[in-house]
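It would be a great kindness if you could assist me with a short task in structural biology. A protein sequence and the C-alpha coordinates that stand for its backbone fold form the material at issue. I should value your view on which stretches of the chain appear to form regular backbone elements. The record follows directly beneath this note.
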Amino acid sequence: MARRHPAGNFKNPKSFKDFKAFKDAGDDIGSTEINPIFARPEEATAFSKSHMPQSESLPETAYQVVHDEAMLDGNARLNLATFVGTWMDERANRLYLESADKNMIDKDEYPKTAEIETHCWTMLADLWHAPDPGKAIGTSTVGSSEACMLGGLALKRRWQHERKAAGKPADRPNLVMSSAVQVCWEKFCNYFDVEPRYVPISREHKVFDGSDLARYVDENTIGVVAIMGVTYTGMYEPVKRIAAALDEIQRTTGLDIKIHVDAASGGMIAPFIQPELEWDFRIERVVSINTSGHKYGLVYPGLGWALWRSKEWLPSDLVFTVSYLGGDMPTFALNFSRPGTQVLLQYYMFLRLGFDGYRRVQQTLHDVATYVSAQIGKMDDFTLWNDGSDIPVFAWTLSERPERKWDLYDLQDRLRMKGWLVPAYPLPADLTDVTVQRIVVRDGFSHDLADAFLEDLRTAVNYLDGLKAPMPSESQHSGFHH
Protein backbone atom coordinates (compact mmCIF):
# COMPACT_ATOMS: atom_id res chain seq x y z
CA MET A 1 0.00 0.00 0.00
CA ALA A 2 1.41 3.36 -1.01
CA ARG A 3 2.39 5.69 1.80
CA ARG A 4 0.31 8.80 2.18
CA HIS A 5 1.69 12.26 2.80
CA PRO A 6 0.38 13.67 6.09
CA ALA A 7 -1.37 16.47 4.20
CA GLY A 8 -3.03 14.21 1.66
CA ASN A 9 -2.12 12.42 -1.52
CA PHE A 10 0.58 14.88 -2.50
CA LYS A 11 3.65 12.68 -2.21
CA ASN A 12 4.56 13.46 -5.84
CA PRO A 13 2.55 16.53 -6.94
CA LYS A 14 2.40 16.80 -10.71
CA SER A 15 0.60 20.10 -11.27
CA PHE A 16 0.98 23.60 -9.89
CA LYS A 17 -2.35 23.17 -8.11
CA ASP A 18 -1.10 19.98 -6.46
CA PHE A 19 2.21 21.62 -5.63
CA LYS A 20 0.51 24.58 -3.98
CA ALA A 21 -1.64 22.23 -1.90
CA PHE A 22 1.51 20.23 -1.07
CA LYS A 23 3.26 23.34 0.26
CA ASP A 24 0.19 24.76 1.97
CA ALA A 25 -0.24 21.48 3.81
CA GLY A 26 2.79 22.43 5.89
CA ASP A 27 5.42 19.77 5.21
CA ASP A 28 7.41 19.57 8.44
CA ILE A 29 10.78 20.36 6.89
CA GLY A 30 9.78 21.83 3.54
CA SER A 31 9.95 20.84 -0.08
CA THR A 32 12.13 21.36 -3.11
CA GLU A 33 10.42 22.75 -6.18
CA ILE A 34 11.69 21.54 -9.55
CA ASN A 35 12.12 24.06 -12.35
CA PRO A 36 9.69 23.13 -15.16
CA ILE A 37 12.62 23.13 -17.59
CA PHE A 38 14.10 20.15 -15.75
CA ALA A 39 10.93 18.26 -14.85
CA ARG A 40 9.83 15.62 -17.39
CA PRO A 41 6.23 14.54 -18.12
CA GLU A 42 4.80 12.29 -15.42
CA GLU A 43 7.48 13.36 -12.95
CA ALA A 44 6.99 15.14 -9.66
CA THR A 45 7.30 18.91 -9.66
CA ALA A 46 8.43 18.94 -6.02
CA PHE A 47 10.24 16.63 -3.65
CA SER A 48 9.59 16.51 0.08
CA LYS A 49 12.66 17.17 2.22
CA SER A 50 11.52 14.85 4.98
CA HIS A 51 10.00 11.87 3.13
CA MET A 52 11.55 9.61 0.52
CA PRO A 53 9.66 10.05 -2.78
CA GLN A 54 7.19 7.29 -3.57
CA SER A 55 8.22 6.94 -7.21
CA GLU A 56 11.35 7.31 -9.31
CA SER A 57 12.60 10.31 -11.20
CA LEU A 58 14.97 10.54 -14.14
CA PRO A 59 18.67 10.85 -13.26
CA GLU A 60 18.76 14.23 -15.04
CA THR A 61 16.07 15.56 -12.73
CA ALA A 62 17.61 14.21 -9.54
CA TYR A 63 21.03 15.51 -10.61
CA GLN A 64 19.75 18.99 -11.29
CA VAL A 65 18.01 19.23 -7.92
CA VAL A 66 21.11 18.14 -6.01
CA HIS A 67 23.41 20.24 -8.19
CA ASP A 68 21.36 23.38 -7.67
CA GLU A 69 21.18 22.93 -3.90
CA ALA A 70 24.92 22.21 -3.55
CA MET A 71 25.69 25.25 -5.70
CA LEU A 72 24.43 27.45 -2.87
CA ASP A 73 27.34 26.35 -0.66
CA GLY A 74 29.45 29.06 -2.28
CA ASN A 75 32.82 29.06 -4.02
CA ALA A 76 35.30 26.83 -2.18
CA ARG A 77 38.24 28.73 -3.68
CA LEU A 78 37.18 31.82 -1.74
CA ASN A 79 37.04 29.93 1.56
CA LEU A 80 40.05 31.26 3.47
CA ALA A 81 38.91 29.53 6.66
CA THR A 82 39.53 25.90 5.80
CA PHE A 83 42.84 24.06 5.69
CA VAL A 84 41.31 21.35 3.50
CA GLY A 85 42.24 21.13 -0.18
CA THR A 86 39.69 22.49 -2.64
CA TRP A 87 41.49 22.07 -5.96
CA MET A 88 43.23 19.32 -7.92
CA ASP A 89 44.17 19.12 -11.57
CA GLU A 90 42.22 17.47 -14.39
CA ARG A 91 44.11 14.17 -14.33
CA ALA A 92 43.67 13.88 -10.57
CA ASN A 93 39.95 14.44 -11.08
CA ARG A 94 39.91 11.67 -13.69
CA LEU A 95 41.75 9.33 -11.33
CA TYR A 96 39.24 10.21 -8.61
CA LEU A 97 36.33 9.06 -10.78
CA GLU A 98 38.13 5.93 -11.99
CA SER A 99 38.90 4.73 -8.47
CA ALA A 100 35.82 5.88 -6.57
CA ASP A 101 34.64 2.28 -6.10
CA LYS A 102 37.80 1.06 -4.31
CA ASN A 103 37.47 0.11 -0.64
CA MET A 104 40.72 0.82 1.19
CA ILE A 105 40.04 -1.83 3.81
CA ASP A 106 39.72 -4.62 1.25
CA LYS A 107 43.40 -5.25 0.65
CA ASP A 108 42.76 -8.71 -0.80
CA GLU A 109 40.55 -7.36 -3.59
CA TYR A 110 42.68 -4.25 -4.17
CA PRO A 111 46.27 -5.37 -3.44
CA LYS A 112 47.88 -2.68 -5.59
CA THR A 113 46.03 0.05 -3.73
CA ALA A 114 47.29 -1.49 -0.47
CA GLU A 115 50.81 -1.56 -1.88
CA ILE A 116 50.53 2.08 -2.91
CA GLU A 117 49.43 2.95 0.62
CA THR A 118 52.68 1.43 1.90
CA HIS A 119 54.68 3.35 -0.72
CA CYS A 120 53.13 6.60 0.52
CA TRP A 121 53.79 6.22 4.23
CA THR A 122 57.31 4.90 3.55
CA MET A 123 57.98 8.06 1.53
CA LEU A 124 56.68 10.11 4.45
CA ALA A 125 58.89 8.20 6.89
CA ASP A 126 61.87 9.08 4.72
CA LEU A 127 60.72 12.71 4.40
CA TRP A 128 60.45 12.93 8.20
CA HIS A 129 63.89 11.41 8.79
CA ALA A 130 62.91 8.09 10.35
CA PRO A 131 66.15 6.28 11.36
CA ASP A 132 65.22 3.44 9.00
CA PRO A 133 62.16 4.22 6.82
CA GLY A 134 61.89 0.56 5.92
CA LYS A 135 61.37 -0.32 9.59
CA ALA A 136 58.88 2.47 10.30
CA ILE A 137 55.19 1.60 10.37
CA GLY A 138 52.26 3.68 9.22
CA THR A 139 48.70 3.73 7.98
CA SER A 140 46.36 5.94 6.02
CA THR A 141 43.31 7.31 7.80
CA VAL A 142 40.18 9.26 6.92
CA GLY A 143 41.89 12.43 8.20
CA SER A 144 44.18 13.81 10.85
CA SER A 145 41.55 13.47 13.56
CA GLU A 146 41.60 9.69 13.21
CA ALA A 147 45.39 9.74 12.87
CA CYS A 148 45.72 11.75 16.10
CA MET A 149 43.51 9.29 17.93
CA LEU A 150 45.60 6.36 16.70
CA GLY A 151 48.75 8.14 17.88
CA GLY A 152 47.13 8.79 21.27
CA LEU A 153 45.94 5.20 21.58
CA ALA A 154 49.44 3.88 20.90
CA LEU A 155 50.86 6.16 23.62
CA LYS A 156 48.20 5.09 26.09
CA ARG A 157 48.54 1.35 25.41
CA ARG A 158 52.34 1.40 25.64
CA TRP A 159 52.12 3.33 28.94
CA GLN A 160 49.60 0.79 30.27
CA HIS A 161 51.90 -2.10 29.38
CA GLU A 162 54.85 -0.48 31.15
CA ARG A 163 52.80 0.33 34.26
CA LYS A 164 51.37 -3.18 34.54
CA ALA A 165 54.79 -4.75 33.98
CA ALA A 166 56.06 -2.67 36.91
CA GLY A 167 53.09 -3.69 39.07
CA LYS A 168 51.71 -0.16 39.14
CA PRO A 169 48.13 1.03 38.56
CA ALA A 170 47.27 2.11 35.02
CA ASP A 171 43.85 3.65 35.51
CA ARG A 172 44.64 7.39 35.54
CA PRO A 173 46.41 8.28 32.28
CA ASN A 174 46.89 11.92 31.29
CA LEU A 175 48.04 13.66 28.14
CA VAL A 176 49.80 17.05 28.11
CA MET A 177 49.18 19.53 25.29
CA SER A 178 48.59 23.16 24.46
CA SER A 179 45.29 24.86 25.21
CA ALA A 180 45.29 25.65 21.47
CA VAL A 181 45.04 22.03 20.30
CA GLN A 182 42.52 21.09 17.64
CA VAL A 183 39.28 19.67 19.05
CA CYS A 184 40.18 16.12 17.95
CA TRP A 185 42.53 15.90 20.95
CA GLU A 186 39.72 16.89 23.29
CA LYS A 187 37.64 14.16 21.68
CA PHE A 188 40.45 11.62 22.11
CA CYS A 189 40.71 12.33 25.83
CA ASN A 190 36.93 12.21 26.23
CA TYR A 191 36.37 9.05 24.20
CA PHE A 192 39.31 7.07 25.59
CA ASP A 193 39.26 8.11 29.26
CA VAL A 194 42.44 10.14 29.33
CA GLU A 195 42.79 13.25 31.49
CA PRO A 196 43.70 16.24 29.31
CA ARG A 197 46.25 18.62 30.80
CA TYR A 198 46.29 21.88 28.91
CA VAL A 199 49.28 24.21 29.01
CA PRO A 200 47.79 27.69 28.47
CA ILE A 201 49.15 30.05 25.85
CA SER A 202 49.66 33.72 26.64
CA ARG A 203 50.93 36.92 25.08
CA GLU A 204 54.40 35.99 26.35
CA HIS A 205 54.11 32.38 25.18
CA LYS A 206 51.99 32.47 22.02
CA VAL A 207 52.53 28.74 21.61
CA PHE A 208 53.29 25.82 23.91
CA ASP A 209 57.10 25.93 24.10
CA GLY A 210 58.04 23.67 27.03
CA SER A 211 57.98 26.45 29.60
CA ASP A 212 56.89 25.16 33.05
CA LEU A 213 56.30 21.73 31.53
CA ALA A 214 57.40 20.00 34.75
CA ARG A 215 54.23 21.34 36.43
CA TYR A 216 52.02 19.29 34.09
CA VAL A 217 53.69 15.88 33.78
CA ASP A 218 53.90 13.00 36.22
CA GLU A 219 54.15 9.21 36.24
CA ASN A 220 50.67 8.96 34.69
CA THR A 221 51.55 11.08 31.66
CA ILE A 222 51.26 8.92 28.53
CA GLY A 223 52.90 11.54 26.32
CA VAL A 224 53.13 15.14 25.21
CA VAL A 225 51.55 16.51 22.03
CA ALA A 226 53.44 19.13 20.03
CA ILE A 227 51.73 20.91 17.16
CA MET A 228 53.39 21.81 13.89
CA GLY A 229 50.94 24.47 12.78
CA VAL A 230 48.48 25.54 15.48
CA THR A 231 44.98 25.70 14.02
CA TYR A 232 44.19 29.05 15.63
CA THR A 233 47.15 30.92 14.16
CA GLY A 234 49.33 28.61 12.03
CA MET A 235 52.36 28.92 14.32
CA TYR A 236 54.77 26.06 14.98
CA GLU A 237 55.32 24.77 18.50
CA PRO A 238 59.09 24.30 19.02
CA VAL A 239 59.31 20.52 19.21
CA LYS A 240 63.04 20.51 19.87
CA ARG A 241 62.65 22.89 22.84
CA ILE A 242 59.79 20.78 24.22
CA ALA A 243 61.96 17.68 23.88
CA ALA A 244 64.80 19.46 25.72
CA ALA A 245 62.42 20.28 28.57
CA LEU A 246 61.45 16.60 28.75
CA ASP A 247 65.14 15.63 28.73
CA GLU A 248 65.65 17.82 31.80
CA ILE A 249 62.56 16.33 33.46
CA GLN A 250 63.93 12.83 32.89
CA ARG A 251 67.32 13.86 34.30
CA THR A 252 65.74 15.13 37.52
CA THR A 253 62.80 12.75 37.98
CA GLY A 254 63.51 9.67 35.88
CA LEU A 255 60.27 10.14 33.89
CA ASP A 256 60.83 9.19 30.25
CA ILE A 257 57.96 10.85 28.38
CA LYS A 258 57.62 10.65 24.61
CA ILE A 259 56.23 13.10 22.05
CA HIS A 260 53.58 12.74 19.41
CA VAL A 261 53.78 15.49 16.80
CA ASP A 262 50.48 16.67 15.39
CA ALA A 263 51.80 17.83 12.03
CA ALA A 264 48.40 17.96 10.35
CA SER A 265 49.54 20.99 8.38
CA GLY A 266 53.24 21.50 9.04
CA GLY A 267 54.22 17.95 8.19
CA MET A 268 53.82 18.78 4.51
CA ILE A 269 55.26 22.30 4.77
CA ALA A 270 58.36 22.21 7.00
CA PRO A 271 60.32 19.55 5.03
CA PHE A 272 60.12 21.75 1.93
CA ILE A 273 60.20 25.32 3.28
CA GLN A 274 62.16 24.95 6.54
CA PRO A 275 64.27 21.81 5.94
CA GLU A 276 66.78 22.79 8.63
CA LEU A 277 64.08 22.89 11.34
CA GLU A 278 64.32 19.83 13.61
CA TRP A 279 60.83 18.73 14.60
CA ASP A 280 60.46 15.18 13.29
CA PHE A 281 62.08 11.76 13.86
CA ARG A 282 65.47 13.47 14.06
CA ILE A 283 64.41 14.16 17.64
CA GLU A 284 64.66 10.88 19.52
CA ARG A 285 61.70 11.63 21.80
CA VAL A 286 59.37 11.90 18.82
CA VAL A 287 57.86 8.43 18.43
CA SER A 288 54.86 9.19 16.20
CA ILE A 289 53.68 11.84 13.75
CA ASN A 290 50.44 12.49 11.91
CA THR A 291 49.63 14.68 8.94
CA SER A 292 46.69 15.45 6.67
CA GLY A 293 47.05 14.39 3.07
CA HIS A 294 44.00 16.50 2.38
CA LYS A 295 45.60 19.70 3.68
CA TYR A 296 49.05 20.63 2.44
CA GLY A 297 49.43 17.10 1.06
CA LEU A 298 47.34 18.67 -1.75
CA VAL A 299 44.67 15.95 -1.94
CA TYR A 300 40.89 16.25 -1.79
CA PRO A 301 39.19 15.71 1.62
CA GLY A 302 39.28 12.30 3.25
CA LEU A 303 42.94 11.44 3.88
CA GLY A 304 45.29 11.47 6.86
CA TRP A 305 48.51 9.62 7.72
CA ALA A 306 49.82 8.24 11.02
CA LEU A 307 53.43 7.04 11.31
CA TRP A 308 55.54 5.52 14.07
CA ARG A 309 59.33 5.68 14.32
CA SER A 310 59.47 1.88 14.31
CA LYS A 311 57.16 -1.03 15.02
CA GLU A 312 58.11 -1.09 18.70
CA TRP A 313 56.16 2.14 19.22
CA LEU A 314 52.93 0.69 17.88
CA PRO A 315 51.81 -1.98 20.40
CA SER A 316 51.00 -5.17 18.53
CA ASP A 317 47.80 -5.76 20.52
CA LEU A 318 46.28 -2.68 18.85
CA VAL A 319 46.69 -4.26 15.43
CA PHE A 320 43.97 -6.68 14.33
CA THR A 321 44.37 -9.42 11.77
CA VAL A 322 41.03 -9.71 10.02
CA SER A 323 39.77 -12.35 7.63
CA TYR A 324 37.78 -10.35 5.12
CA LEU A 325 36.63 -11.00 1.57
CA GLY A 326 39.00 -13.84 0.90
CA GLY A 327 42.17 -12.83 2.72
CA ASP A 328 43.82 -12.07 6.05
CA MET A 329 45.06 -8.55 6.63
CA PRO A 330 46.34 -6.42 9.52
CA THR A 331 44.43 -3.27 10.34
CA PHE A 332 44.82 -0.46 12.84
CA ALA A 333 42.05 2.04 12.33
CA LEU A 334 38.92 3.46 13.90
CA ASN A 335 37.11 3.15 10.58
CA PHE A 336 36.65 0.02 8.52
CA SER A 337 35.34 0.49 4.98
CA ARG A 338 36.53 3.78 3.52
CA PRO A 339 37.52 5.14 0.11
CA GLY A 340 40.84 4.11 -1.38
CA THR A 341 40.83 6.80 -4.01
CA GLN A 342 42.45 9.48 -1.83
CA VAL A 343 45.43 7.19 -1.23
CA LEU A 344 45.85 6.87 -4.99
CA LEU A 345 45.55 10.64 -5.33
CA GLN A 346 48.31 11.10 -2.72
CA TYR A 347 50.57 8.74 -4.66
CA TYR A 348 49.71 10.63 -7.84
CA MET A 349 50.75 13.91 -6.22
CA PHE A 350 54.00 12.41 -4.91
CA LEU A 351 54.84 11.15 -8.40
CA ARG A 352 53.53 14.22 -10.18
CA LEU A 353 55.37 16.82 -8.09
CA GLY A 354 58.27 15.05 -6.42
CA PHE A 355 60.26 16.89 -3.78
CA ASP A 356 61.11 19.84 -6.02
CA GLY A 357 57.51 20.25 -7.14
CA TYR A 358 56.19 20.23 -3.60
CA ARG A 359 58.88 22.72 -2.62
CA ARG A 360 57.81 25.10 -5.41
CA VAL A 361 54.12 24.80 -4.58
CA GLN A 362 54.63 25.30 -0.85
CA GLN A 363 57.08 28.16 -1.43
CA THR A 364 54.49 29.91 -3.58
CA LEU A 365 51.87 29.51 -0.85
CA HIS A 366 54.39 30.79 1.68
CA ASP A 367 55.17 33.81 -0.50
CA VAL A 368 51.49 34.64 -0.95
CA ALA A 369 50.84 34.33 2.80
CA THR A 370 53.73 36.60 3.81
CA TYR A 371 52.77 39.09 1.08
CA VAL A 372 49.14 39.31 2.21
CA SER A 373 50.10 39.45 5.90
CA ALA A 374 52.57 42.27 5.18
CA GLN A 375 49.86 44.25 3.38
CA ILE A 376 47.40 43.72 6.23
CA GLY A 377 50.10 44.62 8.76
CA LYS A 378 50.50 48.01 7.05
CA MET A 379 46.84 48.87 7.60
CA ASP A 380 46.25 51.13 10.60
CA ASP A 381 43.30 49.10 11.87
CA PHE A 382 45.22 45.84 12.30
CA THR A 383 48.05 44.31 14.32
CA LEU A 384 49.50 41.01 13.13
CA TRP A 385 49.50 38.16 15.64
CA ASN A 386 51.85 36.23 13.35
CA ASP A 387 52.96 36.67 9.74
CA GLY A 388 52.58 33.27 8.04
CA SER A 389 56.29 32.46 8.14
CA ASP A 390 55.62 28.99 9.60
CA ILE A 391 52.80 27.35 7.67
CA PRO A 392 51.12 29.78 5.22
CA VAL A 393 48.52 30.79 7.79
CA PHE A 394 48.37 33.99 9.80
CA ALA A 395 46.09 35.93 12.12
CA TRP A 396 45.61 39.51 13.18
CA THR A 397 43.83 41.55 15.83
CA LEU A 398 42.27 45.00 15.79
CA SER A 399 44.59 47.79 16.86
CA GLU A 400 43.49 49.94 19.77
CA ARG A 401 41.12 52.72 18.73
CA PRO A 402 38.38 53.55 21.25
CA GLU A 403 36.21 55.46 18.77
CA ARG A 404 35.95 52.52 16.33
CA LYS A 405 32.32 51.50 15.66
CA TRP A 406 33.03 47.99 14.39
CA ASP A 407 34.84 44.79 15.27
CA LEU A 408 36.28 41.78 13.45
CA TYR A 409 32.91 40.03 13.38
CA ASP A 410 31.53 42.97 11.40
CA LEU A 411 34.48 42.71 9.02
CA GLN A 412 33.89 38.99 8.68
CA ASP A 413 30.31 39.70 7.59
CA ARG A 414 31.32 42.41 5.10
CA LEU A 415 33.87 40.11 3.47
CA ARG A 416 31.31 37.31 3.28
CA MET A 417 29.12 39.60 1.20
CA LYS A 418 31.88 39.44 -1.42
CA GLY A 419 32.12 35.65 -1.12
CA TRP A 420 35.23 35.56 1.11
CA LEU A 421 35.11 33.36 4.22
CA VAL A 422 37.57 34.84 6.72
CA PRO A 423 36.65 33.71 10.25
CA ALA A 424 36.88 35.81 13.39
CA TYR A 425 37.01 34.02 16.75
CA PRO A 426 38.45 34.28 20.27
CA LEU A 427 41.73 32.61 21.17
CA PRO A 428 41.62 29.67 23.63
CA ALA A 429 41.59 29.63 27.44
CA ASP A 430 43.47 32.45 29.19
CA LEU A 431 43.33 34.53 26.00
CA THR A 432 39.60 34.48 25.30
CA ASP A 433 39.57 38.27 25.56
CA VAL A 434 41.62 38.38 22.34
CA THR A 435 39.68 38.08 19.09
CA VAL A 436 41.63 37.32 15.92
CA GLN A 437 40.86 36.93 12.26
CA ARG A 438 42.74 34.29 10.28
CA ILE A 439 43.60 33.47 6.68
CA VAL A 440 44.68 30.05 5.39
CA VAL A 441 46.54 30.21 2.09
CA ARG A 442 46.02 27.00 0.11
CA ASP A 443 46.85 25.77 -3.36
CA GLY A 444 44.63 27.77 -5.73
CA PHE A 445 44.90 31.07 -3.81
CA SER A 446 47.12 32.88 -6.30
CA HIS A 447 48.77 36.30 -6.14
CA ASP A 448 45.97 37.61 -8.38
CA LEU A 449 43.29 36.30 -6.01
CA ALA A 450 45.28 37.70 -3.10
CA ASP A 451 45.24 41.17 -4.67
CA ALA A 452 41.50 40.85 -5.32
CA PHE A 453 40.99 39.91 -1.67
CA LEU A 454 43.08 42.82 -0.43
CA GLU A 455 41.06 45.22 -2.56
CA ASP A 456 37.83 43.87 -1.09
CA LEU A 457 39.33 44.01 2.41
CA ARG A 458 40.29 47.67 2.03
CA THR A 459 36.86 48.48 0.64
CA ALA A 460 35.19 46.76 3.59
CA VAL A 461 37.41 48.56 6.12
CA ASN A 462 36.76 51.93 4.49
CA TYR A 463 33.03 51.30 4.71
CA LEU A 464 33.24 50.25 8.36
CA ASP A 465 35.50 53.15 9.28
CA GLY A 466 32.83 55.48 7.94
CA LEU A 467 30.16 54.23 10.33
CA LYS A 468 28.63 56.81 12.64
CA ALA A 469 27.16 54.12 14.93
CA PRO A 470 27.86 50.43 15.62
CA MET A 471 26.51 47.83 13.22
CA PRO A 472 23.17 46.39 14.40
CA SER A 473 23.60 42.94 15.87
CA GLU A 474 21.71 40.83 18.36
CA SER A 475 24.90 39.10 19.45
CA GLN A 476 28.54 39.37 18.55
CA HIS A 477 30.06 35.94 18.39
CA SER A 478 31.72 33.65 15.92
CA GLY A 479 29.97 30.70 14.37
CA PHE A 480 33.40 29.31 13.51
CA HIS A 481 34.76 26.35 15.45
CA HIS A 482 38.14 24.58 15.32
In short: The first strand starts at residue 31 and ends at 33. DSSP finds eleven helices and 15 strands in the chain. Residues 357 and 451 are 24 Å apart (CA to CA).
